[in-house]
């Protein structure tokens, strides 16, 4: 931990004046990004609800932040495998599952991380799935003006920016006469 981080942490401790347990647990989770309420309660109870002592213990005893888990299930895009004509809007849809043992926190999103950005959003919100639940996530995109094979990578991300789960690929063949956009338009009718 850098000295500026330590100084910032100490400054934050000096600003805290709370004896409500819920407030202390929330503050613990704010200070240790990725810590969950159960960990916060354990450390705070262990140190008689002294926030500074609990946070110090977290670092001293090697507290581990557990990230959510996610599994790519399938590409369920309507017309999957069809090529897209140049400069056409289309929607890419993937099925994903929370394959962990705990619910996902609120505020998770699917975020573009690299490859060819297909004129869509940088990220889309994802529901806070319970353990074992599956959902479909869709991203509206626009095919490039030039023909070719384009790919981009997407990742699930917590509200605090921690990436988790399988990488999700978008691979799109762009060809004159491609039918994906038309197939999706017909499906919406």
Automatic annotation (TrEMBL):
Q: Which CDD domains match?
A: NBR1_like (cd14947), UBA_CF106 (cd14349)
Q: Where in the cell is it found?
A: Cytoplasmic vesicle, Autophagosome
Q: Which residues form the signal peptide?
A: none
Q: Name one GO cellular component term.
A: cytoplasmic vesicle
Q: Where does the Nbr1 FW domain lie?
A: 77-174
* Record keywords: Cytoplasmic vesicle, Metal-binding, Zinc, Zinc-finger
- Which GO MF terms are attached to this record? zinc ion binding
Q: Does the keyword Electron transport apply?
A: no
Q: Which Pfam families match?
A: N_BRCA1_IG, UBA_4
- Protein name as catalogued: Nbr1 FW domain-containing protein
């Amino acid at each position: 931990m850098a000295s500026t981080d330590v100084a910032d942490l100490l400054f934050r401790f000096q600003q805290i004046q709370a004896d409500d347990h819920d407030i202390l647990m929330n503050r613990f989770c704010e200070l240790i990004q990725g810590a969950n309420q159960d960990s916060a309660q354990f450390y705070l109870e262990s140190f008689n609800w002294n926030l500074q002592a609990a946070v110090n213990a977290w670092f001293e005893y090697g507290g581990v932040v557990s990230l959510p888990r996610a599994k790519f299930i399938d590409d369920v895009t309507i017309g999957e495998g069809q090529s897209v004509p140049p400069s056409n809007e289309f929607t890419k849809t993937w099925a994903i599952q929370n394959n962990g043992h705990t619910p996902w926190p609120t505020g998770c999103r699917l975020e573009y991380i690299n490859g060819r950005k297909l004129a869509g959003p940088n990220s889309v919100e994802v529901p806070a799935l319970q353990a074992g639940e599956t959902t479909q996530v869709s991203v509206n995109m626009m095919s490039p003006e030039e023909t070719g094979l384009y790919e981009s990578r997407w990742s699930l991300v917590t509200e605090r920016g921690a990436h988790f789960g399988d990488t999700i690929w978008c691979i799109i063949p762009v060809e004159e006469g491609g039918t994906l956009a038309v197939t999706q338009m017909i499906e919406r009718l």
